[in-house]
Amino acid sequence: MLARIIGIRVYGVKNLHIFSIYTFRFLHANTTITTTSTHFLVDFLVNSLGFSREEAVTTSNKVTRSKPPKNPDFVINFFEKNGFDNTQIKNIVSKSPKVLFSNVDKTLKPKLEILQEIGFSGSDLVKFANANIHIFDRGVDTFLRPSLEYLRTLLGSDEDVVKVIKKTSWLLSSNAPKIMAPNVLLLQNIGFSDLKLRKFILHHPRTMMRKTEWLEDVVHRVETDFGIPRESAMFVHGISAVSSFSKSTLAEKVDVYRSFGWSDAHINTMARKLPFCFCLSEAKIRKQLTFLMKEVGCTSEYLASRPKLLMYSLEKRVIPRYKVLKILHGKRLNSGLGLYSAACMTPSTFMKEVVLPYKDKLPLLYGSCMKSVQ
Asked: Is the keyword Transcription in the record (predicted)?
């Protein structure tokens, strides 16, 4: 019995010893391969792309493959032939070094070709690809083409598709059809026509990539909090404004209006007429209201029904024209033109109808207006 036990132990020790030897050899071999691969990649980055040794080591550490790239020179040549300069190639490789392992004909070339198909070319193509290197990580048939075809269906033209992906390039790296479809259906169900939907996507592609529950909440707030009915032409602009800010940020903007004595009724009146007033910064709102209400004497009711006045530049338009009207009124030359009407005029119309009639009587005013009125 003792012999059997000893034999088993000896047998086990021998096998354990043999196993350890093979394990050591395997790990040593793989470590050697990985080390060789790392050294090769570091040397290539330094010698071919001008990386510093430190940059090359940092970049190579992002690579998990044990074998070195087969033909990294082919990859570099491909980018050079397509108009990428060394700085741009270095940027792509430093952010995604695995691109050096890519097959040029099967992987890289089709991705640039699909962008060329929708209208990218020359420097535009290079600039877009350099700024959005994630496209090199996405499959042509699994991500890029389905997303582009879906966007083409929604927008109607490759030109508009290019505009959208320039604004939100990760439409190509995400599953756009799956993410956008529920939001498209939501907007269609609340009355968005195809034309209105196209315009909304063009201006707010990021909003269309949000969760549907979030967009439903935005729609609800536009209707209930700001009182903009769905059939209103301003409803789409209300969604644009509300979706651009968090609830807390919008609440802070509303509080600024309230601090100047605005009632909720007046705030809602303004929102229904021009929701973009909520896109102004708090500082801008405060500055506009300080001048218009405290200097000019406008009431909240007056401004709520004429919200465009809040959107104009004080320095370039409102104040210069207010000063002109004040001078004319002091000379009893003003025919009763109000600030709102004056501010809404184009520069040429304002000069023609308000300033030029008094050019001879008030030459200094005319000269001043030629420089400042816009």
From this structure: yes
Under DSSP, is residue 245 helix (H, G, I), strand (E, B) or coil? coil
- Decide if 187 contacts 200 (C-beta within 8 A): yes
- CB-CB contact of 56 with 41 (8 Å): yes
pLDDT at 68: 66
Q: Cα separation of 129 and 297, whole Å?
A: 54
Dihedral of alpha carbons 321, 322, 327, 331, sign: positive
Confidence tier at 39 by pLDDT (50, 70, 90): confident
Residue 281: which of 306, 245, 317 has the closest Cα? Answer: 245
What would the CATH number be for the domain defined by 210-310? 1.25.70.10
Distance in angstroms (rounded) separating the CA atoms of residues 138 and 146: 12
Tally of CB atoms within 10 A around 23: 10
Both tokens of 275, joined, read: 């929701």
Closest by Cα among 273, 275, 281 to 301: 273
State the Cα–Cα distance between residues 35 and 27, nearest whole angstrom: 12
Give the tokens for residue 148: 């582009």
Domain spans, the chain = 210-310, 311-373
Residue 46 clears pLDDT 80, i.e. is over it: yes
